[in-house]
Amino acid sequence: MPFRSRLELVTCLVARIDVLQASLRIAFRITGIVRHLSGGENLDHSQEDDTVFVDIPVPTILQNGAVKLVVTQPSQKSEDASLIAAIARGTCWFEELTSGKASSISNIANRECVTDSYVSRLLRLALLAPTVVEQALIAGEVLVNIESDA
HEC string of 90-131? Predict the structure, then answer.
């Protein structure tokens, strides 16, 4: 869908977006949504007051008298990404060893240009319980002390 068409669609479906202290309030036009979902080509604005408000909680900060949205937390994301990568590597190497594709830890270390010790540490991550991995990485809750030198 071209940009102009998407812009027109959003303009017909969304009446207003307000940034509040702890949330975004989006006002949707019901008739526009119904018309779009039913395949109606005419997405003109209606004059009726047919809006529905949806409040979406978002982290905000008050800075210099203005409310600003907190979009990302880079330090937390990069740590999680490196831990996910370490768990993925350890799991792949564990599968290679158990399936016979790799004959030893030294074989993997030489191929990856890392030390045997590094491969051994990451192999231990492959043995984490799935619930620990899910809660620690997806939900952001650290239940056990998981460290990697990745």
Answer: HHHHHHHHHHCCCCCHHHHHHHHCCCHHHHHHHHHHCCCCHH
DSSP state of 47: S
pTM score, two decimals?
0.44
Please provide residue 44's backbone torsions phi and psi, each rounded to the nearest 5 degrees. -65, 155
For the chain, the straight-line distance linking the first and the last C-alpha, in angstroms and rounded, comes to 41
Question: How many CA atoms does the CB half-sphere of 14 hold within 13 Å?
Answer: 13
27 bridge partner residues? 16, 53
Chain-centroid distance of CA 26 in Å reads: 21
10 Å CB burial of residue 122 (0-12, 13-18, 19+) is buried
Say if residues 12 and 36 touch (Cβ distance below 8 Å): yes
Pairing of strands 51-57, 23-29: antiparallel
pLDDT in tens, 40-60: 655 555 555 678 888 888 887
Classify strands 14-19 and 23-29 as parallel, antiparallel or unpaired: antiparallel
